[in-house]
Amino acid sequence: MKIGFIGLGAMGRAMATNLVNADFDVIVWNRSADKCKALVEAGAKQADTPADCAAADVLITMLADDAALAAVVDEHGLIEALGEHTVHVNMATVSINTARDMARRHADAGKAYVAAPVLGRPDMAKAAKLQVLAAGPNAAIETARPALETMGAKVWPAGEEAERANVIKLATNYMLVAAVETMGEAASMTAKYGVEPGDFLEIITQSVFASPAYQGYAPAMKARDYDNPEGFKLALGAKDMDLALAAAAAENVPMPMGAAARQRLSEAMAAGTGDQDLSALAEVSRRGAHLDD
């Protein structure tokens, strides 16, 4: 199977590497061409333009946001460049409006489109343990399934409407931000009563909250070390929270906890921690509780 892969950030690079290692015929493109070097050395081909990646059985795009996806699709005529039977799998976290627009434009052009955002951080991408949310025509999903299963631990079908996969991803990240924020708040509260944050975090993550959402972020809170290149950047959490709140507002779904969490994200970014791991939210709670005064 020939696979085109566009977007070699922290997630995309790991995902594409797993495809190369699994002996797929992979051709890659990235706006910063130097990011292709390691993959080419591993066995991938480097495309001169994004359109060169579209002549494949499956085209995967893993770009930062709506604007990055639109730039590649529009500037390089990506939909028009797709082969007659090529399936475009967009694995980025995008807005509901963009999900709908991409699905409509591909359908109008007679091309197959699958939305397949993933749950998991770069470390999980490296280990091929991502959870893949796939929505689109069933035949297109089945065509892409060998690649999706190579990159992830499980493929979760989400229906034929592409936006369903995206709304599940946004809802999940909404819950993740809320979980990390409340864990930081609780750690600050117990610290005020003399409980070491590390002790509290160990108790909750080995008992009532023994789940990846808590266990994945507690160690950084304990160490107060938030510079994690394999982590989920706080600024990306803010972006996804904005998309989730917009999706909720479009259907008149009240999400008051989301508004509060978004405010905390703003406070954290104002303190200059946007490029740090999401667990840096704990420092906002510590400052509010005057723990370090």
From TrEMBL:
InterPro entries: 3-OH-isobutyrate_DH-rel_CS, 6-PGluconate_DH-like_C_sf, 6PGD_dom2, 6PGDH_NADP-bd, HIBADH-like_NADP-bd, HIBADH-related, HIBADH-related_NP60_sf, NAD(P)-bd_dom_sf. The keyword Transferase does not apply. Keywords: NAD, Oxidoreductase. One of its GO terms (molecular function) is NADP binding. Residues 165-284 form the 3-hydroxyisobutyrate dehydrogenase-like NAD-binding domain. This is NAD-binding 6-phosphogluconate dehydrogenase. GO terms for biological process: organic acid catabolic process. It comes from Salinisphaera hydrothermalis (strain C41B8). The active site is at K169. It comes from the Bacteria. Residues 2-156 form the 6-phosphogluconate dehydrogenase NADP-binding domain. It holds the Pfam family NAD_binding_2.
